[in-house]
## 1
Amino acid sequence: MTTGPDGPTGWRVHVGGQLIEDTQALGLQNAAVRDAQAAEVKRSQERAERAVATAQAAATKAETSRREAIEARAAAETAAEEANKSVTKAEKLRTEYEAAQSAIDGATSDAEAAQRRAETAAAFADTRTAETVRANTAAGRARQEAIEAVQDALRIQGEINNAQSEINQAHDEIDALHTDAVNRQGQALVQLQQAKQQHEQTLSRLQQATVLLGQATDMASEARAEISANMSRFLVCDSNTTSWNSYVEAVNGSWTTVSTVRAKGTWTGHIVHIVAYGNKAPAIGHSRITASSREVSVNGGLGASIAFSITFYMIDKPGDPARSREADQAQDG
């Protein structure tokens, strides 16, 4: 430290390897430090906000996929119900087919009985040729009955043929319905499998979204911790002001040349306290903070007027946060 011929206004001080000529240069350096700190805080907040936005977008996409999977599964269940209805209809037609077949068997039996009666009547007419004259009327009636019986048999046979045609058509319809039911059931199984795959994909996306959200939360926590750490390594205090954070408290009192810094809580480390004066060169104080030594004071001497102070501190061992007084938001600090 040197002085020129001009007296007190000629003081020069060499701090940290850099020559500081006056309080205006010191103020410019302090402003640059504060601007750099504010820029770093802004960048950390922007990184945290981008991470949270990415996680929210992934969660929204996973929720949309989950709703689509639920809708696909509902459609598959509806298709399965329609297939079951088709199978029920096919079983009903098969029952009707069996009933028609039974009716055909009865009609066939009746036709065969009529044919036998016609044959008996014809045989009776042939064996009674000797009594043709007397039995002419009876034979004519018997032959007429035989003809009617044959006609009945032909009519019954036609009904049988029609019934058989209807049975065949019903059988074809049953086969078509059965084939359609099988196809629908296959389609329903495919849709159900697709719905299951979509559900599994949705679960996977939801898990990924959960992981991303956790990562974003961690990044935000780290950003907040980084901001807190960066902002808590120095403290600026103006004249006639008391400023503090969770670690230190600086007191630049009125009508006094002494600037005091107290370590809060139970942490240990180092404090470097620089006091700038409006009418004198800056003064520096340093102290190692221990359990018994918790304060640094800098006295500018007679007539000194405190402009502001900057306190730098390094923590070797953190203390109990519960024992550090939090800053009052209504005051400086």
Note: Residues 55-227 form a domain with the Helix Hairpins fold (CATH 1.10.287).
## 2
Amino acid sequence: MLTRARVREGAGRAATITGAAVLTLALDTDLAAGPGILAAAATAGTGLAFNPRIRYAPQAVRATAIAVYTAPHTGCALLLAGGFFAPDSSLSVLVQIAVAAAWTGATWWLRPGLTARALADEALAQELAVAADETAEEAPVVVYATAQAQWWGEHVAVEDGVAAGTVLLDHRQVSDECLALVIGAAEHGRAVPKIAVADLSALLDIPEDLITIGPVPGRGAGVRLVVLGRRPEAVGLDGATEAEVWADIAATAMPGVELVDATTYTMRKELI
């Protein structure tokens, strides 16, 4: 990129010097006017051909950028034509010398080619920024079924999160300190990504040995059962057997799913 910039700069400087030489030569002979005008037109066309950023600039500034780029070539051609028809007098020659010097100085210092490219680049950057803003505004809004699902999606299943690529399908408060979660893959037809128990433990502030992640009986790898807490005793569960309790949990958390394990621990309030 740096080499190309230097080549363009060198070409622009060389063209300016050449144009000044042609204008000086035209002061002595009218024969330089015709070839000089043709050379100016050819140089402008060649320069545009090798500057697609100007040719394909955003429509709003394309004409302006092309006009700025070709301004030195147009000016040189007009000066040559004017000199051809100018009267042959000392005053006329002095005026032509002054105008040629002004053209050379303006072209050398203002660098119209660089200005035209900068104009095109700035307009393109603005268009891209506007397009990016419109895309951001049109981004779909995620709607969660429950507050718990929203918390899971915004804290656990975020990109590069502990359980990225998952969604909380349902949950069941087994007891005061026991929670069962049924999670699924965010993309249909994909398996639930592997979740590091250590990372989930750190996020929820629950000991690792009180977190169980396993398959959901009777279901595929697209869903997983996450049980948090210590396994409750079968006794003291309102007279029901342990199997009956977990059958009821299964019916509530996910119809048709038989939960087979659970633990007990203080849960984060966001998941309860």
Note: The chain is about 55% helix and 10% strand.
